[in-house]
Write a structure and sequence with these properties.
With 70 residues, the chain is mostly helical. Helices cover 63% and strands 0% of the residues. It contains one helix and no strands.
């Protein structure tokens, strides 16, 4: 029985790291798809509730300060 050389051990380690990196990248892609689905769901809910139906309009300057704010 021969012991693996240093080069062989490094090649095995490198192959394992590449496989792990590939798996992590695939998980990142799945997470990105899930986040996109969540964003679409929240947009749909916001539109359904009327939160995003009206565009944001800056209000006129107030004559007085709001209580609790300097």
């Amino acid at each position: 029985m021969t012991l693996p050389s240093e080069k062989d051990r490094w090649e095995v380690e490198l192959r394992q790291l590449r496989e792990e990196l590939h798996a992590l990248r695939e998980e990142q892609r799945e997470l990105a798809r899930s986040i996109d689905q969540l964003v679409q769901a929240f947009r749909s809910i916001a539109t359904h509730l009327g939160i995003t139906a009206e565009p944001y309009v800056k209000k006129e300057k107030r004559d007085r300060d709001l209580p609790g704010f300097a």
